[in-house]
Amino acid sequence: MATTNHITTKWKGGMAFETNNPSGHTVNIDVGPEDGGEGSGFRPKALMLSGLAGCSGLDVAMLMKKMKLEVDDFQIETIANLTDEHPKYYDKVRIEYHFHGANLNEEKLQRAVDLSVEKYCGVMEMFRRFAELEIKTIFHK
Q: Which of 54, 72, 67, 49 is nearest to 110 (CA)?
């Protein structure tokens, strides 16, 4: 049987919502004052980018552990272009993987990124259906 996720998103008044997750945690969603909200939560489209970075980041972190790679710091910068026409969506997304450390194994870290991008990350695959993706790996020594 197929796996399903069931999410409940509850209106909190105004433009604010609270949404849950199978983990049991909740996230607040809202828009800024320019769109009638109070800015008290995450913006829905931006949350998609966090989901993308988080999904791929988990893959890379798992592979770094498995390959016993030395990394002092690791962050993902996600820069997305929103279309002008409604419904607005991301048509181009640049994902930058930044690795910091004195003993970075660049070859293996690149392999970890490639495996996430090409094979493991389901959110990446979803984004690939509607956006042009640009992937960059940057090493800081």
A: 67
Identify whether residues 35 and 61 lie together within a single domain: no
Q: Are residues 29 and 59 in the same domain?
A: no
pLDDT tens-digit map of 33-54: 999 999 999 999 999 999 999 9
How far apart (Å, rounded) are the C-alpha atoms in residues 33 and 40? 10
CATH number of the domain to which 91 belongs? 3.30.300.20
Contact 62, 103 (CB under 8 A): no
Distances (CA, A) of 12 to 4, 15, 27: 25, 8, 12
Whether 2 shows a pLDDT value over 90: the answer reads no
Domain that holds residue 21: 1-42
Report whether pLDDT(12) > 90: yes
User: Is residue 59 exposed (0-12), middle (13-18) or buried (19+ Cβ within 10 Å)?
Assistant: buried
